[in-house]
Each structure stands twice: as structure tokens, then as C-alpha cells.
Amino acid sequence: MRVDHKSLQFRMTVRLALVFALATVAITVVVIMESWETAAELDNDELAHALLGEFVSDIAWLIPVIALAALIMAGVTLRRALAPLRRISALAGYIGPQRTDIRLPESELPSEIKPLVTAFNQGLDRLDTAFAQQRRFTANAAHQLRTPLALLSANLDLLEGNGEIVALRADAARMTRLVNQLLRVARLEAQPLDVSRRIDLAACAHRAVSALAPLAVTQGRELALSGAEQPVYTKGNTDGIEEALRNLIENGLAHTPVGGVVTVTVDPGGAIIVTDQGSGVSEGDQAQLFERFWRGSNASAEGAGLGLSIVAEIMQFHGGRVSVDRGPCGGAMFTLLFNSTDQRSSRETR
Predict the structure, then answer these.
(1) How far is residue 208's CA from residue 202's CA, in Å, rounded to a whole number?
(2) Does a structural domain hold residue 204?
(3) Model confidence at 151, in pLDDT bands (50, 70, 90)?
(4) What is the mean pLDDT of residues 215-220?
(5) Alpha carbon distances (Å) from 100 to 104, 115, 152, 344
(6) How far is Cα 131 from Cα 120, in angstroms, rounded to an integer?
(7) Residue 66 within a domain
(8) pLDDT of 255-294, one tens digit each?
(9) Which helix (H) or strand (E) holds 326?
(10) Domain for residue 86, yes or no?
(11) Are 235 and 199 a contacting pair, CB within 8 Å?
(12) Would 68 be classed as within a structural domain?
């Protein structure tokens, strides 16, 4: 067992041991001196030796035993008194931007620590309120922008096409996509995904590819799906996974040259892989790729830096992760990796 020399329990135990040791020495010295003075007054050296011998044999050995027992009891008492602190410390580790609702229990705490925990919970209340206000502002602003953007896009479609009109339509489409992504971010922050249901990853991939196939054709690119012939079951949220796949596929289409292919592969081990034929992601950009509003040096003009961060948040809700590597053709290869799949159910379905 590793001893933490900076812990309160260790320091209190050491100090108690020093106090008991000093008390034992002091009591022994006092008793010896009193016995010696008593014998000296009676002018009897034999009596003095007898008294000291009786003290050592009958009393002195009890002092360190009692001190050791008291020290052990003090250590155990202190450890039990600090047990609630260890529990609330473990609970505090779960607090984060997605879990601002957690509060530390104030019961069974030492009276000296309770005011600190109360102040900490009050600080969390203020932070939770601030986060909620920020989320409401983002959601309301994005929602209010959707209607004028829809009207703008509709009016632009009625105008005769020329170079400037086409550019305006592209700008309006980009703004609409950004607003929709902001709404998605606000919803993810306001209401965590329910990932308790049994879903089929292959079916999710098939629906996402089918929804974006017309976009790929319009852009002069191909969209392929493999490994979706048999179901792959896991616990998750269908809408969330399809949203993550759509973001990855749109990202792949944006970076793949005309005539290229974006491939979606369902791995029976519990993963979905999206591979494009673009320029790939440099190692220096991989660490920041999933941060909000971060755009790399080779980012497309249409992107706002929100799509991949949404993918990362969705996978975090599922207890999985998203990673990026170099694809077999030199492009980017994004992998949605889920922690567990229902392999037994998959085999039975086959």
C-alpha cells in the first residue's frame, strides 16, 4: 500500500505518534523520579530499586501498548472521518460541461469541511445557470435565423441564374448549414442523447448514405457503402449516429475531388469507417481537428468548423470515440468506434 506523505491522515498520525511518544517518555521520567525521591527520603537504596523494578515490570510496559492502541484508534477514526471526502472527490471528477447538474452531498461531512462543499455547490449552481443562459441564447438566435435564411434562399432561387446569383446561393446555403449546426449543438448541450436503446449500425449507415447520395451525384462524386449486408447491434441513439455519419460524409465529399469516392464501411466489431480521397489530415492538425470552430490550413471554404466537433460530442455520449488516420488512398479515414456491440444477437440474425 502506497503511503501519501502529504495526506492529512498521514500528517495527523505522525503528529499523534510524536505526542504519544513524548507523553510516554515524560510519564516514565516522572514516575522514576518520584520513586527515586521517595526511596531517597527513606534512605533505602534497595527499596528504590524494588520500586523501579516493580514499575518497569508492572506498569511501564503498558504505556507504549496504550499509546499504540490510542494511535491506531486515532488513525482509524481519522480515516473514517475522511471517507466522505474521498467519496465526494470521486463524484466531483464526473462534473464537466455536459454534467453540470451534479452536486456534492453535504451529509455526513465534518463540520469544518461542510462550508467549503456548500460554497462549491453554490458555485456550480451559478455556472449551471450561466451555461443554460448561453445555450438558450445560441438556440434562440439560430432558430430566429432559420426563417429569414429560408426566405432568402427561396428568393434567390427565383432569380435568373448568373455568376453572382450562384455565389449568393452558395453563401446562403453555407449560412443555413451553419445555423442548423448551431441548433444541433444547442440541442446536444440542452438534452443529452438517450443511448440506452438497441440499434443497428448497418441500418444507420444505410440511411445516412441514402440521404446524401443525391448530394454526391450533384457534386460529381461517388458514395459507396460496404459491410452493411448484416446487422451490427449496439446500444445507442439512431438519430445521433446518423447525424454523426452525415457530418463525416459531407466532410468527405467536400474534400474529395470530382470523380472521387467516399466510402462508408461498417465493421462487425462495432465501428463505422468513413474514408475519402482528399488530401488527408496532417499529424499536427489531428489534435485540434474536433474542436469547435477550428479549421485547418486545408479546410474548405464551406465549412465552419462545427461538424467534426458535433461528431465527437455524439460519440462521447455513446461512450465511444472518433479517430482520424491516413486512408489507404492517401485521404482521411474517420472511425466511429463503439465500446460494445451485441455480437450474439448479430450472429442469431444471420
Answers:
(1) 10
(2) yes
(3) confident
(4) 88
(5) 11, 20, 38, 37
(6) 16
(7) no
(8) 888 989 999 999 988 899 999 988 877 777 777 777 776 6
(9) strand 321-326
(10) no
(11) yes
(12) no
Residue spans of beta strands (DSSP E) within 201-296: 222-226, 233-236, 261-267, 271-275
Q: Cα–chain-centroid distance for residue 82?
A: 26
CATH at 296: 3.30.565.10
Q: Are 259 and 252 in contact (CB under 8 A)?
A: no
Cell representation of residue 340 = 460494445
Cα separations (Å) of 7 from 4, 51, 117, 254? Answer: 6, 44, 19, 55
Residue 25, number of CB atoms within 10 A of its CB: 11
Domain count, the chain: 1
pLDDT above 70 covers a percentage of the chain that reads 69
Q: Is 200 exposed, middle or buried (0-12, 13-18, 19+ CB in 10 A)?
A: buried
Task: Return the closest-CA partner of residue 71 out of 25, 29, 14.
Answer: 14
Residue keyed to cell 454534467: 99
Distance CA 327, CA 330 (A): 5
- The residue with cell 466532410 is 251
Q: Which of the listed ranges 15-19, 124-128, 199-203, 282-286 does the model predict with the highest average pLDDT?
A: 199-203
HEC string for 23-90 = HHHHHHHHHHHHHHHHHHHCCCHHHHHHHHHHHHHHHHCHHHHHHHHHHHHHHHHHHHHHHHHHHHHH
What global pTM score does this model have? 0.56
* Domain residue limits at 339: 197-349
Per the rule left: phi > 0, alpha: psi between -120 and 50, beta: everything else, 264 is: beta
Please name the amino acid found at residue 120: F
| DSSP assigned state of 229 | S
Q: Per the structure block, which three cell numbers stand in for 297?
A: 490550413
pLDDT, tens only, 170-216: 777 777 777 777 777 766 666 667 788 899 999 999 999 999 999 89
Mean pLDDT of the chain: 76
* Residues 311 and 244 sit within 8 Å (Cβ to Cβ): yes
